[in-house]
Amino acid sequence: MYRYIVTAAAAAAAAAAGYQSMAPTGQWFGRTFTGLSPRSKQLALTYDDGPNDPHTLRLLEVLARHNVHATFFLIGRYVRHRPDIARELVTAGHVIGNHTFTHPWLTFKSMQELRTQLTDCGRALTEAVGEHSRLFRPPFGGRRPAVLRVARQMGLEPVMWNVTGYDWRAPSVEYIEHKVTSKVRGGNVILLHDGGHLAFGADRSCTVTATDHLISRYKSEGYEFVTIPEMMRGAAVSRQLSAVSNVGTGPGP
After folding, report:
1. How many domains does the chain have?
2. Going by fewer Cβ within 10 Å, which terminus of the chain is more open, N or C?
3. Is 100 left (phi over 0), alpha (psi -120 to 50) or beta?
4. Sign of the CA dihedral with 157 first, then 98, 238, and 20 last
């Protein structure tokens, strides 16, 4: 019986660890940014796997029409292929971050391979646009403690998400909208895709249209769309205010 209990406990622990290595809001393996409190009226649109022609450019048109800035996590090899699109993103006021050079499962990569993926992507971004953010998002959300440790040693800030439109499956616009609206509660980091990791030129037309609809809906409900750095600054201010409040309500002399 004891052996059975130990075996079952080990299996449960392994399953939990496996889940945490992929769960976007999991914090077992290290702190990552996943958004603000549900009381917030801020939302952050984030897009992975670009730059991509023509859908990144079409997305830029939608965002400009709504006067919204977003955060784009770019694949280094695509940036090398189309640095002009990366420059368009920055010129339009959007934030770009590191999504590795070839989009591998980092969970299974050696320490050297981790550094190479992040370094090569960072170099591609710098060559294309010059100075850029230090944000990093692991492909597929896959991570283990070493992934986050190496990223932080390189001065990168890991960013995950807490709402996704599952748009990499190239479903309908309505499907993407439903997946997002069913989870948004405020303070959310929303994951969408302007490209595809398997090949350049992935069809993201549904994402472009869904983005247009989502911005219109949530702006009409009083939400503000911000970039990840803007949301992070809001989180830092909230922590400072909370700390001051806690000091003020502490026991007297």
Report:
1. 1
2. C
3. left
4. negative
In a domain, 166, yes or no: yes
As given in the structure block, the two tokens for residue 59 are 């997305």
CA distance linking residue 228 with residue 71, whole number of Å: 6
Could you confirm whether 48 is annotated as catalytic?
yes
102 domain residue, yes or no: yes
Answer yes or no: is 53 within a domain: yes
Catalytic pick among 69, 103, 132, 193: 193
Return phi, psi of residue 152, to 5°: -70, -35
Q: What is the pTM of this model?
A: 0.87
Q: What is the pLDDT of residues 150-190, one digit of tens each?
A: 999 999 999 999 999 999 987 899 999 999 999 999 999 99
Handedness of CA 238, 31, 154, 226 (dihedral sign): negative
